[in-house]
Q: What sequence folds into this?
């Protein structure tokens, strides 16, 4: 497919889109008004008029259906279509009409609560009559759509919305009913006396459960790829800001880490490791079929499928390499309106505090560095900065949802308010959202639907994790930890006191109060679809979607801070508008030919994005009061900026699934992606995958093994891509330069980038071998996978000779490998009244750089900018993992009289000692690993690896009667972390506060220590002294819930009431002395996500929470 | 419902969305092809070079600070400062030094902008030759300046004289010998001399006299005294026509609010207060680097002269009080340097006293940093003239103009420094170099004088050394070539002597 293929039709794109938006709103209104709530006494109150000549019974039923909410359920054989009636009813109830009509045919009827009218044959002598009853789940919730069949016959019924069913034509005597429902265990029950209420138990790992995959769904038993599923109840186990947060610890092979504990901040999600070095390794999110969609709150999500292997992800081609997270939102089901109210309130505190020196310990420490340092400074009562800045925060989370529908119209409507008060003063986050899903059956062959999601978020942020602070940009946490405990919050004049030791930094309270940072985002995501069945086996589905994000960020630095003081306040505001449009069209053909079962899907999609941005900034304001809302009132107008970036992606995709003898499963997926981001010679990319699975347990030779309910072998191989090349990266560019002539900024450019006409996607080849084992009717269910991924054509900024005037050029060079094991073990440990289930997931991933440009090491520094002089702290080296820490090997302190190595930074007793491990070069100038008797840059080596050996999550649920207890643990083992926080505090230069480790510093009377003497002459050096074991075990959630007895709640007109208390992050077992071992400095998604792993600096601490909640179903 | 209708609408939608060729048509991104259409476009590339020199990577910190620390006039104050700065100051730098590895690429990026401007000017159609040549002259002037700095610091270097579109074609070139680099520099400046205008609207753009001044400097460096003298002399003779004169008040030369249109400036690197661009452009850090730590100016005390610089400088010299400060405000109270919390020494005042619009620690200033000013030219003429035997009275006249201005103070003229007269040739040479050290103090000029006159062993060793460095040796006149460049292109080997 070359770029010049012809357009079909004319360009309607823009106007059509507007039309669609308009249509969508009209349709929504229409659907909302039609989907009424039904009354219970409907059949009594509804008056119908039926006037028909020569009509069949069915015609009469249809006329009634047209006029009312009634639905008829009958077996065609029961009705004699030759019987023709002449009827003339006026303003009569349905009963009155049916009594007359059915009397003629000899049939009986039952009007069920949901206005379903079941027609059954009249009794005859051999028949006992009907069996009726109600199907519910263990919580007493009615189950609609369960099949109840009399054993040994085909006679049966389907339960209605209130769970009731009725079967006619039942032979005499006790009969056995077989009751089945997807997601629940099949049951056999003996009906006595024509009544049988049935309670179905949820099937833990239902083989018939449907799993959502790209462009369709498959039965779990037919799955050939590696897919993890996370269900709604796990996602809402505790209040979570986002789905990604709720995913933590829930699925094997999925690593989720907080980027910063700040309310509203993002999470870092990695599926089977980072497949890239310089491009994003974030997974692709597909929300109800919308790739790149925004995630609704966890409460609105029905299930999440994590697609991991190439067989599952290759259908997303150039975006599949990092795994795909399929999100399915809740939809309405037929039945009366279900109203659900969820409310929870959490109290939060910072997860931990750092042991800092108090006023006296601090005074002792800094005067040791310089006896005169306190001269002329006033020492007040002292301040505990952690006490000043941390507060009790909280989360309020409320959801009200309505769902239900008829055969033809189904709806789900939900509104959620999430309001978080951060544990640091002045940090808050609010989220308001509405999710609305409508399904409409336009005709037997045509279904349409609309998913709509609207959300506003307001983040009132505080500065943490600063990249570079200097004296003007300190963040709160680093200011809290470094701040002198002798400093008051306010000086005698009532102004914020400024640090007098070292750099004159603002105090943390000032930073929290005087630096305003507010981000408001409005998201609207709509996805409209139509599905047309030409024949039952062949369906066309067309979707049109739009995702719009409008964001505004305002910043203001008041005149009470260093950064605002001399400039009279500094305000800026920036806005952006992002629009993504998508159109998907695909045909699905599925047919069972007996031993051969075939399903084929093929389609085309087009997606475009447009990002606009603009900003303005000003300084020197008459007042701080207007924040960023009066830039024109500033007297120093600064740097306006604006930009526009557009991308397009066009794709052809297809899949074939072939099942032979119900045991041998073959899947082939392929996608052919054309991306505007790719260079002009490489616009199109092909990503195929294939998979094979074998249901061994279904083989006849396994028949004897009754305990083995499932045994399936899976294997897959395929290619996926990462198109995370920034737009326009393949083009030659003149970059703009800030340039001055006299008092004016002038237009200026310089050559900044050369073209790479062959720049292309990164390709990941992945092999997966897996086995699914189920024992004792799936009471024990194990999924194990081994995978091996190799990513080639890595995007690398290849350094160019600098004398060329260019620094680098983006090229496809290098490769990286990820391989590992994943295990998910689900067990029902105890079944019965007291029930105990466990889910354990465990994953390993080994990440290794295989090839770098010219095989050269790539060194880089990740330290905060103001911690100058550290140089390289990390290295990319062939054979080593991405993100490896690099530096000297710390060897304690030099003692009095000990010979100090030449070149060692501290040339005094009590100084930091580093190991001489290398330095002698061979004839080629390469290092030999032989110590050379002096300390130099050659003695630096890899001192840590941020990648864990394994991560795990362990969820236990206990239930007894109405009570349930959930204990959820997560952990990470064997990962190192690099702490700039502790480096800044414990280098012991006497220019800031330190941790209590400083009490054990080397002193003439305290020499048996590995903490050096305090010294102003010491610089920051990258060494193993700052590398810590980041392993941890965390009690992520403990929750105790109680469902009030149905009998009690039904009296007050409710169907279910649940109350619960829970605690999150209550305990973290770790050796790390910082706030939290879950660290992620400068790692917030994007390209640097993998390079900057396991770093800690000035992070907003995660919170521990105590939650109370209530869920009421009306 | 009419299914056919709905279905056809869907099909049309499908068709229209399918209409794409995936070509990127960036808005807000400038493509080099076809960029140069008017002289203004060429100027944009020239301004690109200027703006990128007024950058943290070059004159805002890395390059200017390197030159200052290298000299005997500026020492490291805060020894806790990054080792790259200490190593430059202490003659311990190596091929990995973080100063070098920052300004080396920046220099070549600016050369690249100049080369692009030259190519652009040559490609313009419908333009008169005078305008074209003036643009080319300006670009060649900038290129000469950048290479002149590089060749003095590194010796033999890669010389790129053309706009580069395929950087990989340069992967294995060899260094250009120093002499050839100088020849190219002189060619550029000769061309610039000829085609630059006699005056310019902005001191940030060179005029004829700027090219003459730099050429004088090039010849001075090469000890081509006659040429040096001739070029400097041209500037003196054409000062009026070129709108050049000495500023009366020495302090005004370091008052950023009075820099624009300053007549003494022959060519400047121009910063503007509180505005800056990406990648360090427009970021001037000389203020905080030389400012006093722990005082209201919130300096970092990095570049602080040794006590000897202060003590050996005659207090009667007005220039001393302009150039240095021995007290500073702390919490609004003036305290003497003996009470400074960290570096208890007088500090440089030239960049912190009047920074114009600036950040509170004197960052992002309004300074125009003079690369050449008239006093410099007068002293170059005197020094070169002395070597070729120009009449002493003429040369004394040049020096005395500088000294006379130095005697001016806002409180009326001083009687110090006195006019010079009656010196021998050798004494005159020493006097001029000393005069340059003080007149041009802290202006990143001293290292060039030390290096071209090979004064290192004299000024860094012995009892009279202002800033003793016993480890100084002749290899230190050059810096090490950046190791990563040598790694990428081994044809650049050998490394400069003393750095292996």
A:
């Amino acid at each position: 497919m070359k770029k010049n293929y012809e357009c079909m039709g004319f360009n309607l794109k823009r106007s059509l889109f507007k039309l669609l938006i308009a249509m969508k709103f009209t349709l929504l209104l229409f659907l909302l008004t039609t989907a009424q709530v039904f009354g219970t006494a409907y059949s009594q109150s509804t008056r119908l008029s039926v006037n028909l000549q020569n009509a069949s019974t069915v015609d009469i039923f249809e006329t009634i259906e047209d006029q009312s909410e009634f639905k008829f359920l009958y077996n065609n054989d029961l009705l004699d279509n030759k019987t023709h009636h002449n009827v003339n009813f006026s303003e009569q109830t349905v009963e009155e009409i049916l009594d007359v009509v059915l009397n003629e045919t000899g049939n009986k009827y039952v009007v069920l609560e949901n206005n379903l009218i079941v027609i059954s044959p009249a009794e005859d002598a051999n028949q006992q009559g009907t069996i009726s009853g109600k199907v519910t789940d263990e919580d007493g919730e009615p189950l609609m759509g369960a099949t109840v069949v009399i054993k040994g016959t085909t006679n049966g019924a389907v339960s209605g919305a209130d769970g009731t069913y009725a079967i006619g034509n039942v032979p005499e005597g006790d009969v056995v009913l077989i009751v089945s429902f997807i997601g629940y265990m099949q049951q056999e029950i003996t009906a006595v006396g024509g009544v049988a209420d049935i309670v179905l138990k949820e099937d833990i790992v239902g083989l018939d459960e449907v799993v959502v995959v790209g462009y369709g769904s498959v039965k779990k038993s037919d799955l050939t790829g590696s897919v993890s599923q996370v269900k709604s109840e796990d996602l809402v186990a505790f209040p979570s800001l986002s789905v990604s947060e709720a995913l933590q610890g829930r699925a094997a092979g999925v690593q989720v880490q907080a980027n910063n504990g700040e309310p509203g901040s993002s999470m870092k999600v990695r599926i089977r490791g980072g497949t890239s070095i310089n491009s994003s390794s974030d997974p692709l999110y597909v929300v109800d079929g919308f790739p790149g969609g925004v995630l609704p709150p966890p409460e609105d999500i029905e299930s999440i499928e994590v697609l991991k292997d190439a067989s599952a992800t290759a259908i997303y081609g150039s975006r599949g390499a990092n795994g795909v997270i399929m999100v399915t939102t809740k939809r309405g089901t037929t039945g009366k309106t279900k109203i659900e109210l969820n409310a929870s309130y959490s109290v939060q505190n910072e997860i931990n505090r750092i042991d800092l020196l108090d006023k006296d310990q601090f005074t002792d420490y800094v005067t040791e560095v310089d006896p005169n340092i306190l001269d002329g400074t006033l020492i007040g009562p002292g301040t505990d900065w952690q006490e000043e800045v941390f507060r009790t925060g909280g989360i309020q989370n409320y959801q009200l949802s309505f769902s239900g529908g008829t055969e033809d119209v189904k709806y789900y409507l939900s509104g959620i308010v999430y309001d978080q008060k951060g544990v640091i003063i002045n940090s808050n986050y609010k989220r308001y959202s509405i999710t609305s899903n409508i399904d409409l059956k336009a005709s037997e062959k045509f279904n349409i639907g609309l998913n709509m999601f609207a959300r506003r978020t307001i983040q009132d942020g505080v500065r943490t994790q600063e990249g570079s602070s200097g004296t003007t940009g300190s963040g709160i946490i680093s200011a809290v930890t470094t701040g002198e405990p002798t400093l008051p919050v306010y000086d005698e004049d009532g102004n914020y006191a400024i640090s007098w030791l070292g750099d004159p930094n603002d105090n943390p309270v000032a930073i929290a109060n005087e630096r305003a940072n507010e981000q408001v985002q409005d998201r609207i995501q709509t996805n409209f679809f139509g599905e047309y069945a030409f024949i039952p086996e062949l369906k066309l589905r067309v979707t049109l979607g739009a995702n719009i994000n409008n964001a505004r960020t305002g910043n203001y630095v008041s005149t009470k801070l260093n950064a605002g003081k001399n400039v009279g306040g500094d305000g800026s505001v920036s806005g952006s508008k992002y629009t993504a449009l998508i159109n998907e069209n695909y045909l699905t053909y599925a047919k069972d030919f007996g031993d051969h079962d075939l399903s084929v899907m093929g389609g085309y999609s087009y997606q475009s994005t447009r990002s606009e941005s603009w900003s303005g900034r000003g300084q020197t304001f008459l007042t701080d009061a207007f924040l960023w809302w009066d830039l024109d009132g500033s007297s120093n107008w600064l740097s306006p900026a604006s930009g526009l970036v557009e991308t397009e992606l066009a794709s052809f995709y297809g899949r074939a699934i072939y099942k032979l003898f119900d045991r041998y499963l073959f899947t082939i997926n392929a996608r052919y992606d054309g991306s505007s981001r790719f260079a002009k010679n490489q616009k199109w990319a092909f990503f195929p995958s294939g998979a094979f699975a074998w249901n061994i347990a279904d083989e006849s030779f396994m028949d004897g093994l009754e305990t083995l309910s499932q045994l399936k072998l899976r294997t897959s191989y395929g290619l996926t891509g990462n198109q995370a090349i920034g737009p326009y990266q393949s083009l030659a560019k003149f970059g703009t330069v800030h340039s001055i002539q006299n008092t004016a900024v002038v237009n200026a450019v310089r050559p900044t980038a050369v073209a790479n006409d062959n720049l292309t996607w990164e390709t990941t080849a992945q092999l997966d071998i897996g086995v699914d084992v189920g024992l004792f009717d799936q009471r024990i269910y194990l999924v194990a996978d081994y995978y091996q991924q190799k990513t080639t054509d890595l995007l690398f900024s290849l350094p160019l000779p600098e004398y060329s005037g260019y620094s680098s050029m983006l090229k496809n060079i290098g490769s990286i490998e990820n391989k590992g094991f994943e295990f998910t073990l689900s067990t029902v440990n105890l079944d019965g009244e007291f029930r105990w289930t466990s889910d354990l997931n465990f994953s390993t991933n080994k990440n290794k750089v295989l090839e770098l440009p010219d095989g050269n090491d790539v060194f880089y520094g990740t330290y905060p900018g103001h911690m100058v002089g550290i140089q390289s702290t990390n290295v990319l080296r062939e054979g080593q993992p991405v993100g490896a820490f690099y530096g000297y090997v710390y060897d304690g302190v030099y003692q009095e009289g000990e010979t100090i190595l030449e070149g060692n930074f501290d040339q005094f007793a009590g100084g930091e000692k580093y190991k001489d491990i290398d330095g002698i070069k061979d004839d080629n100038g390469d290092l030999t690993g032989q110590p050379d008797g002096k300390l130099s840059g050659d003695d630096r080596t890899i001192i840590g690896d941020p990648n864990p050996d394994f991560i795990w999550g362990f969820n236990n649920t206990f239930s007894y009667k109405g009570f349930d207890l959930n204990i959820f643990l997560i952990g990470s083992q064997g990962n190192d972390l690099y702490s700039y926080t502790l480096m800044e505090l414990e280098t012991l230069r006497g220019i800031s506060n330190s941790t209590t480790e400083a009490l054990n510093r080397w002193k003439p009377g305290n020499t048996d220590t590995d903490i050096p003497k305090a010294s102003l002459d010491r610089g920051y050096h990258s060494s193993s002294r700052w590398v810590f074991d980041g392993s941890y075990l965390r009690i992520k959630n403990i929750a105790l819930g109680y469902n009030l007895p149905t009998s009690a709640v039904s009296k007050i007109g409710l169907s279910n009431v649940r109350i619960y208390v829970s605690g999150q992050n209550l305990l973290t077992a770790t050796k790390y002395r910082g706030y939290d071992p879950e660290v992620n400095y400068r790692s917030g998604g994007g390209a640097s996500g993998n390079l900057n792993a396991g770093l800690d600096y000035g992070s907003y601490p995660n919170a521990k929470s105590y939650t109370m909640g209530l869920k009421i179903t009306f | 419902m009419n299914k056919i209708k709905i279905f056809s609408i869907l099909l049309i939608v499908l068709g229209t969305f399918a209409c794409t060729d995936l070509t990127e048509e960036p808005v807000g991104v400038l493509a080099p092809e076809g960029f140069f259409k008017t002289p203004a476009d060429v100027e944009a590339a020239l301004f690109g070079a200027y703006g990128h020199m007024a950058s943290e990577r070059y004159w805002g910190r890395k390059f200017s600070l390197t030159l200052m620390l290298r000299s005997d006039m500026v020492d490291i104050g805060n020894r806790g400062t990054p080792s790259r700065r200490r190593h430059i100051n202490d003659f311990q730098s190596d091929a990995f030094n973080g100063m070098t590895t920052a300004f080396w690429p920046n220099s070549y990026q600016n050369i690249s902008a100049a080369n692009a401007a030259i190519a652009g000017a040559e490609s313009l159609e419908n333009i008169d030759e005078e305008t074209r040549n003036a643009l080319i002259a300006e670009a060649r002037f900038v290129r000469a300046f950048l290479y002149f700095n590089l060749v003095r610091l590194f010796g033999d270097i890669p010389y790129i004289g053309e706009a580069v579109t395929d950087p990989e074609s340069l992967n294995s070139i060899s260094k250009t010998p120093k002499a050839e680099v100088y020849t190219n520099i002189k060619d550029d400046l000769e061309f610039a001399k000829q085609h630059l205008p006699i005056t310019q609207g902005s001191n940030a753009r060179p005029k004829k006299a700027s090219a003459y001044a730099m050429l004088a400097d090039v010849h001075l460096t090469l000890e081509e005294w006659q040429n040096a003298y001739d070029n400097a002399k041209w500037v003196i003779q054409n000062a009026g026509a070129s709108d050049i004169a000495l500023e009366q008040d020495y302090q005004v030369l370091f008052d950023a609010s009075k820099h624009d249109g300053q007549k003494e400036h022959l060519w400047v690197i121009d910063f503007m207060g509180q505005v800056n661009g990406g990648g360090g452009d427009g970021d001037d850090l000389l203020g905080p680097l030389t400012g006093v730590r722990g005082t209201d100016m919130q300096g970092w005390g990095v570049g602080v002269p040794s006590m000897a610089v202060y003590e050996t400088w005659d207090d009667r010299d007005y220039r001393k009080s302009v150039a240095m400060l021995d007290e500073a405000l702390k919490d609004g109270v003036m305290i003497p340097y003996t009470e400074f919390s960290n570096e208890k020494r007088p500090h440089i005042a030239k960049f912190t006293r009047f920074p114009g619009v600036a950040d509170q620690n004197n960052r992002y200033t309004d300074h125009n940093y003079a690369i050449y000013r008239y006093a410099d030219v007068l002293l170059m003429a005197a020094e070169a003239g002395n070597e070729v035997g120009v009449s002493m009275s003429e040369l004394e006249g040049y020096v005395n103009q500088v000294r006379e201005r130095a005697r001016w103070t806002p409180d009326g003229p001083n009687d110090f420094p006195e006019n010079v007269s009656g010196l021998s040739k050798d004494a005159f040479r020493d006097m001029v170099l000393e005069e340059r050290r003080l007149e041009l103090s802290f202006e990143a000029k001293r290292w060039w004088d030390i290096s071209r006159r090979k004064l290192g062993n004299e000024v860094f060793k012995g009892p009279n050394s202002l800033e003793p460095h016993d480890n100084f040796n002749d290899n230190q006149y050059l810096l090490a070539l950046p190791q990563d460049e040598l790694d990428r292109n081994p044809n650049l080997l050998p490394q400069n002597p003393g750095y292996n």
Observations:
- Chain B touches chain A through 99 residues (CB under 8 Å).
- The two ends of chain B are 85 Å apart (CA to CA).
